[in-house]
Design a protein that fits this description.
alpha+beta, 2 domains, 4-stranded mixed β-sheet, 7 helices, 4 strands, ATP synthesis, ATP synthase subunit delta, transport, ion transport, ATPase_OSCP/dsu
């Protein structure tokens, strides 16, 4: 996986730089998301792996599927990726682009998995506290996992906060065994 990230990073940075100069981060984000989803289709993956097709044929076939959602600059980007045999990196490029976009916009996508659904007041308090901690605007994505005994797991970028009962008991057991 690290290799894919290393290969995708220059393309994501180039797309981000262009989108930022064009003041179209959200447009590029949507286009890259569409291209990433299309590239993950099993039939499209077979197409991308077909050694009998030239780079131009791969690009044109790919664009025939989703060129309406990409626009002229996005289509040129797809042609460049095809020419460099990097179309399979589209999901990774999209993820890296989104990380750069979030950093530039000072936002952070936070996933909260709790034992019970959060009410609006709890979500608001959690969002405010996380916003102060990370000094960014927080976008919460809440879900419920009934297998948790209580509490919640919070994933914010590379940070994971385990506030579950099971997690706290494991920490207590570890401290007692030390």
């Amino acid at each position: 996986m690290a290799e894919l990230s290393t290969l995708a990073r220059p393309y994501a940075k180039a797309a981000f730089s262009y989108a930022q100069q064009a003041s179209d981060l959200s447009g590029w984000s949507a286009a890259l998301e569409t291209a990433a989803l299309v590239s993950q289709s099993e039939k499209v993956r077979e197409l991308l792996d077909n050694p009998q097709l030239t780079s131009e044929e791969r690009a044109e076939t790919f664009l025939s599927i989703c060129s309406d959602a990409l626009g002229a600059h996005g289509s040129n980007f797809i042609r460049l990726l095809a020419e460099n045999h990097r179309l399979q990196l589209l999901p990774e490029i999209f993820q890296l682009f989104e990380a750069l976009k979030a950093q530039a916009e000072a936002t952070l996508e936070v996933e909260v998995v709790s034992a019970t659904p959060l009410n609006d007041a709890q979500a608001q308090v959690l969002s405010e506290k996380l916003s102060r901690k990370f000094e960014r605007e927080i976008h919460l994505h809440c879900s419920v996992d009934e297998n948790l005994l209580g509490g919640a797991i919070i994933r914010a970028g590379d940070t994971v906060i385990d506030g579950t009962v099971r997690g706290r008991l494991a920490k207590l057991a570890e401290a007692m065994n030390s």
